[in-house]
Specification:
Radius of gyration: 16 Å
Shape: globular
Number of strands: 7
CATH topology: Collagenase (Catalytic Domain)
Helix content: 10-25%
Largest sheet: 5 strands, mixed
CATH class: Alpha Beta
CATH architecture: 3-Layer(aba) Sandwich
Number of helices: 2
Strand content: 15-25%
Structural class: alpha/beta
């Protein structure tokens, strides 16, 4: 392992199998039938369990700060939490405080699970360790308000 400038050791992964999750930053049309629209609008989209894809719009101004997001930035960690919720099988929430609420404003910093978020996860996973899916599988976009 080497030590990069940020002081965190690099982790080398030599796993050659197929990944369960694929995360990436993309611009415009990128092969999944759901093109990104540039700055503003759709920030990211995820495809629920069984596909494991999470795509972020590379044209956004992303922040990975642990304590604040500037007014022209989008919180990468908060958006990732929302999209990972979809990967786990959660749908959008009507609760504006929820991570799973379908919109967020630039500069908004939302990283705490609401009661609704926790209740949704409990409903999906409390009685079994495997998420059961039925019906059709949808993907979801998260939009900038």
């Amino acid at each position: 392992m080497s030590m990069p400038r940020c002081g965190v050791a690099d982790i080398i992964n030599d796993y050659v199998g197929q990944a369960d999750l694929i995360l990436g930053f993309y611009r415009g049309e990128h092969g999944d039938g759901s093109a990104f629209d540039g700055p503003g609008g759709a920030l990211a989209h995820a495809f629920p369990p069984t596909t494991g894809r999470l795509h972020f719009d590379a044209d956004e101004i992303w922040s990975d700060s642990s304590y604040r997001v500037r007014s022209n930035q989008v919180d990468l960690v908060g958006i990732a939490m929302h999209e990972i919720g979809h990967l786990l099988g959660l749908d959008h929430s009507r609760d504006e405080l929820a991570i799973m609420f379908p919109g967020i404003a630039k500069g908004q910093f939302k990283r705490s699970l609401s009661f609704d978020d926790r209740d949704g996860l409990f409903t999906l996973y409390a009685d079994n360790n495997i998420l059961q899916l039925g019906g059709r599988v949808n993907y979801y976009n998260l939009f900038l308000c």
